[in-house]
Design goal:
Elements (H helix, E strand, L loop, with lengths): L1 H14 L2 H5 L1 H6 L6 H27 L5 H43 L3 H16 L3 H28 L5 H9 L8 H24 L5 H27 L2 H4 L5 H9 L1 H28 L9 H16 L3 H9 L2 H31 L1
Length: about 350
């Protein structure tokens, strides 16, 4: 069970990037729909749990150190090629976005030049990636309970200091910019582009385990925790929409309202999430081309890290617009492929069980 919790915690740490933890993505995909955002959070929880379980088990079944084998397994010769190319591209793109985002965060927090902040994150990422994958999973998983603790504190504070009625908060919610036409599509799109970003590393994590049940439970737990975080952040922001209306980083604003020190803790959590995402994405990107045990793996890590830093100089806002705008479509193709693979697996499992009984 310990390994399952590690996989689940690592999945949360991997997917919860700066936009998730800051509340900005939750605002656009859930809170902007008011109370319907709760229904959206439930839909997202179910989807994350199912996909987390399925992808982790696929990694275990094929005992792969890269997402390539699984993607070709579920996508076939032709669709597999397209999914592989797109996922590989987005792995690099999302990591670069994290480098740029860390530069912006360091600048806002400490007034440090954004380039210096990005360099710090690049160095930390490269040093971490020189460890083996099991150590990486442990490191990524560590910050998850810390983040959930901070978010829970913010939730309790928000509920007990709510000033407006639910009806009044609904009015403010309807004025927020939405990333989808309705709450259901918002939930699906959110799951879609997050799975597109996190699938590769989740598959790799599943490949480190021999027991598919342990891997499946890990992916399931990770999905449930992701859904729980979405729900907590959504409720915390909804009941304090009068405070976070128009704010770029809503959860950080709520944390500051409690106490400046809590604001610092939340800032650390945001940087931790960026670090987790950068590490996971760059590792999955690198092992797509070079096996972890290969002599060129470590030099490749350094080279790719430097290329990522150079790409991050384009700017955080520009990168987010370019990279994230198309990820949802990739995610839908991947989700359909995973569901088809799962459906094909079920009859085989049932047949095997029947044979055993006979």
């Amino acid at each position: 069970m310990k390994k399952s919790w590690q996989i689940g915690g690592a999945l949360v740490g991997l997917i919860v990037g700066a936009g998730f933890a800051s509340g900005q993505e939750i605002m656009q995909y859930f809170t902007s729909f008011g109370l319907y955002g709760i229904a959206g959070a439930i839909v997202a929880t179910i989807a994350f749990a199912f996909l987390g379980m399925s992808l982790a088990q696929l990694g275990t079944d094929l005992q792969t150190t890269s997402h390539k084998a699984v993607i070709y397994h579920i996508g076939g010769r032709y669709v597999g090629v397209i999914l592989d190319v797109l996922i590989t591209f987005f792995l690099f793109g999302v990591a670069v976005v994290m480098f740029a985002g860390s530069g912006s965060t360091f600048h806002q927090m400490f007034g440090i030049n954004p380039m210096v902040g990005s360099i710090i994150m690049v160095i930390l990422t490269i040093l971490t990636l020189l460890l083996n994958v099991k150590n990486i999973i442990n490191i990524i998983a560590l910050i998850t309970p810390y983040l959930m603790g901070i978010i829970f504190i913010i939730l309790v504070y928000s509920i007990f200091t709510m000033d407006l009625t639910i009806a009044e908060q609904e009015v403010i919610a309807s004025e927020q910019a939405s990333a989808a036409p309705n709450w259901f599509m918002g939930a699906l799109l959110y799951v879609s582009y997050n799975i597109a970003a996190g699938a590769a590393m989740l598959i790799v994590m599943g490949g480190t385990l021999k027991d598919r049940k342990v891997a499946g439970v890990g992916g399931l737990l990770g999905g449930l925790m992701l859904g729980g975080l979405i729900l907590l952040i959504h409720i915390a922001m909804f009941v304090k929409l009068d405070v976070v209306d128009g704010v770029a980083m809503p959860t950080l604003e709520l944390a500051k309202q409690i106490h400046p020190f809590v604001g610092v803790l939340m800032s650390i959590a945001l940087l931790g999430m960026m670090y987790n995402t950068a590490v996971g994405m760059f590792y999955a990107f690198t092992v797509r081309f070079v096996a972890p045990e290969h002599k060129y793996f470590k030099p490749s890590i350094v080279l790719i890290g430097l290329l990522g830093f150079a790409a991050s100089l384009v700017g955080f806002t520009t990168l987010v617009g370019k990279v994230y705008s198309t990820m949802g479509y990739l995610g839908f193709a991947l989700i359909i492929a995973v569901i088809i693979a799962w459906i094909r697996k079920v009859p085989k499992s049932a047949k095997n069980n029947k044979s055993i009984e006979i």
